[in-house]
UniProtKB/TrEMBL annotation:
InterPro entries from the UniProt entry: Aminotransferase_I/II_large, C-S_lyase_PatB-like, Class-II_PLP-Dep_Aminotrans, PyrdxlP-dep_Trfase, PyrdxlP-dep_Trfase_major, PyrdxlP-dep_Trfase_small
Entry GO MF terms: cysteine-S-conjugate beta-lyase activity; pyridoxal phosphate binding
Keyword DNA-binding in record: no
Entry similarity comment: Belongs to the class-II pyridoxal-phosphate-dependent aminotransferase family. MalY/PatB cystathionine beta-lyase subfamily.
Aminotransferase class I/classII large domain sequence ranges: 38-374
Keyword Glycoprotein (UniProt): no
UniProt name for this protein: cysteine-S-conjugate beta-lyase
UniProt KW keywords: Lyase, Pyridoxal phosphate
EC number assigned by the record: 4.4.1.13
Pfam families: Aminotran_1_2
Amino acid sequence: MKNLDEIIERRGTTAVKWNHLAEAFGCDEDALPLWVADMDFACADPILAALKERITHPVFGYEDGYDEAYTEAVTGWFKRQFDWELRREDLFFSPGVVPALGFLIDMLSEEGEGIIIQSPVYYPFAAKIRANHREVIDNPLICENGCYRMDFDDLAEKMRLSQVRGMILCNPHNPVGRVWSKAELKQVAAIAEANHKWIISDEIHCDLIRSGYQHTPLAKAYPKYREEIITCTAPSKTFNLAGLQNSNIIIHKEAYRKLWKKKVIDRFSISECNTFSRTATIAAYKDGEAWLREVNAYVDANFQYLSSFLKEHLPKAVLTPCEGTYLAWIDFRAYVSDAAELERIMRHEAKVILDEGSLFGENGNGYERINLACPQCILKDCLNRIAGALIRD
Ligand SMILES: Cc1ncc(COP(=O)(O)O)c(C=O)c1O
């Protein structure tokens, strides 16, 4: 088992989280980065062992990347974790969930049409909708005392709009950390069903669940409408393999599978993962569970630490309860009401790089997202820097 307290030097590698910070953020190069959602932990031993084993064979020619061993590892994982039965033929490769969002938006809507998102939400949702010349239709989440829920009346109203074709759901939700309940998921799907709209359910965070909570795949929560639900999954977030660029997109409806084949596979030959992502994915889904359990427990402890720290040192900060993901969402408006000023203080006085809340939508102004998938001493350093910058007396 890994020692998750170990600090692994990532500066000087090509890690986007740690490199070129001065260039990217206009801050000191030695600022502490807890922004982009990857982990500062070494990946699971079985994955490293499988990759090492693979390079002992010195030929890296064309491969059958999506064979039975691969699809069985993927479907086996979802069966064991969520009691969710998937058919082999429903799985499609994409070199990432964000690229898949682009493919799906193009496949399922026309230019000028609307797609619903629920802000504050992972910013590439809006970016991909706009880059594909579609309209972002926002159904903002409701926040009460730091706790978030969906506005179903508003969602129903937006779903009724004729220019709306569907929605992108974030389940679990980045950045507010909600693991949507079965009842909530059923309600979303029922509203989509009543209006004949599709749902892309981005479930990349499905395995990063805080103690006491359980993820439900949307298509499993509401199976009678699963043909109109496309689920985006990936081993990358779960097992810290983002650099290997692999994701599995689950499409139940034959017409949509045909469209994917035509628009993604036939046009661009994007059809299977590469030698290393295939090897790592099989090892992760077959033998990575013990490591994942340890990581989730460690993130739970980091969340506890963060919560106690804020109570003691920054009691006016509002921490959203985290049910899933390894991302904390904190409202700092009681300390600094202006979002740009808050960001300046974080980058240039505290010297920490976080994801500023405004990235996720206007309702994120004055919030910060902190990545807790790091050794606790890094988190402690980050929080001491923030408290030092916000409390001056
Ligand atoms: C909700 C969500 N979707 C997708 C991604 C990234 O997916 P990928 O790296 O597979 O493109 C992230 C990464 O943070 C995310 O939070």
